[in-house]
Amino acid sequence: MTRLILLLLMFSAVVIAVTSVMSLIKAPSPAPRQSKDSFMPASVKNIAYVLLIILMFGVVSGVIGGL
């Protein structure tokens, strides 16, 4: 169980590092537009979605929160 949690932490760290590098490499748009409803940057949303999918997979498979 601990190995799985460590594996997921390492995977999320790699995803965060890759998205950070990709955001640095990507040329910024001349006038970034954000809607009124958008409070978080896109990279934070992407990281949250990836972590949510990992959490959902762990719960559904019974590895996290299993009885």
Overall description:
This protein is mainly α and 67 residues long. The chain is built from two helices and no strands.
Broad shape: elongated
**What string gives the helices and strands in order?**
HH
Query: Can you summarize the main beta sheet?
Result: none
Radius of gyration, whole Å: 16 Å
User: Helical stretch count?
Assistant: 2
Tell me the structural class. Answer: mainly alpha
Tell me roughly what share of residues is in helical segments. Answer: 55-70%
Estimate the mean pLDDT confidence: 78
- Write down the domain tally: 1
Portion in strands: under 5%
> Low-confidence parts lasting 5 or more residues at pLDDT below 50?
none
Give the beta-strand count: 0
What is the rounded distance between the termini?
13 Å
Keyphrases for this structure?
transmembrane, 2 helices
